[in-house]
Structures are given as C-alpha cells and as structure tokens.
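anyone seen this seq b4? input:
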Amino acid sequence: MVHVREMEAADIEAVSTIRVRGWQAAYAGIVPRTYLDAMTVEADASMRRRRFSPPRGESIDLVAHGEHGVVGWVCFGPCRSPVPGPRRVAEVYALYVAPDLIGQGIGRRLLGEAHSRMEGQGFGTSALWVLRDNRRARDFYERAGYRADGAAQEDVYDEVTLTELRYRRGL
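predicted toks r here
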C-alpha cells in the first residue's frame, strides 16, 4: 500500500533515481540511447537540489511512499504555455513510477492526488505533454481522461527531433 505526500528534501535521491530509471525504461527505442546512457542520478539530484531550494516557484512535488520508500513522483503547477479556453489551466510537468512497479496503480494515485490539488487551487483544466511515440504513456493518460488537443511541439535529443503532443482534460 502506498500513500501520497508532499516531497521533502530527503526524497531527492529517490526521486532522481525514479526519474532517471524511468526515462531510461520508458524512452528506450524512442530517445537516442546516447542521451539516455548519459543521464545520471547524481546529475539529476544535483539539479533537483537547486530547484528544491528557496525560492521554489509555484510547482508542487508529490511522492508515492510505500514500504520500500519512495516509489513514484509527480510534479505540477500552472501551465507554462498558453492554452485556449476560459478556465485556468494547470500542467503536469512530470510523472514517474519506479519501472518495476508500473501497472500497480501508483501512477493513477499520484495523478489523482495532483488533480485534486489542482482543483483545490482553482484550476479547471489539466494539461501535459507526452512524446508522440510513447504509446504506453499516451494510453495511461487517455485512460485517465486526457485527450490530445492538436497542439504539438518538437524537442531535440542528441540531434534527433522528437514530437510531443499536448493532452488536456477537465478537472
């Protein structure tokens, strides 16, 4: 059984491990291997410590904590790009679960808590970006009620251009 709580500074190493291992597992065959192999927990943790130090900005980090420690992480806040519509829009910046625990409902719990907190802050819509070729993640978000809204952007990883699709859902 896992419970969701706000991330603490003591969780940084575990979150960085989940993020790096999550990237390496989820994006294998999508993002160039050279980029994934260059990712390190140490570098991610160093960046995360800087971001976690005051001033923190408006993002919120939550972790899923179980009997073996931190097993998942979600980060969200105000949407970073304009989204048409009358409602305030939040954005899920990142959501990762320990790769060996995917499919056990941890991501669903984290996303549900993020949605509840977004709604509590007065947001009416949640948006996120997902790599077009990451079918597993797209299926996950679609099961959670998200739909591609037609917006796309491109990111370059080691000289390979990949397309991300924006997904949205009401809260």
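The longest strand covers residues 147-157. The domain at 3-170 is CATH 3.40.630.30 (Aminopeptidase). kinda curious what u guys think
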